[in-house]
Amino acid sequence: MMLISTADIEARQSKARALCAEAEGLCSIAQTARWDALVIKAHAQEVRGARRLFGGSTADNPEIVSLIRALRLCTTCIGSKIGISRKRVDAELKDIGRALALMVAVTRCEACLKQTVVYALR
Ligand SMILES: [Zn+2]
User: What is the CATH code of the structural domain delimited by 6-121?
Assistant: First the structure.
């Protein structure tokens, strides 16, 4: 039989809490790095002319078009990256859909990795 003292338990709990906090921090860093890489990829494709921007009638449109040309993204991720509300993203997507072949599917968002409704232009 193994006996564990209260102090030992407390020490372990404290260590577990510290590890959880560290893991959370790493996840957040990973998410940010992932986003940066995805956006750099999108911009690189644009620069090469592989995915040229066209259409779009508002200031936010080109940014959304540029993101969803390279990636399948949910409205939450589009909104958080560009800094506009989800409602606004929905309106912009409707607008983009009138000019371009907008693809809507339930699959994994390439940014947050959640299984959800995503948008893309392909
Ligand atoms: Zn997402």
Answer: 1.10.10
